[in-house]
Task: structure prediction
Amino acid sequence: MAIKPKSEMPKQDKIIIDLTGPDGNVFVLMGIVKNLARQIGLDGSMIVKEMQLGDYDNALDVMEEYFGEFIIMYR
Result:
């Protein structure tokens, strides 16, 4: 095993969300949405309302629609 300098660490440009852990809770996901929306100038409340119009899979679809270029979700 080699210990490499931190500068060689690959840059992760997307947020990783493990849906099987605590981050998969829909309320945590809505918090992530509000935070991301604020950072890129979107109305997070409107997106959260859209997430609430259906079931859990709908909430994931809405997240993917708005933030797919910023996040990777694992099941």
Notes: The two ends are 30 Å apart (CA to CA). The mean pLDDT is 92.
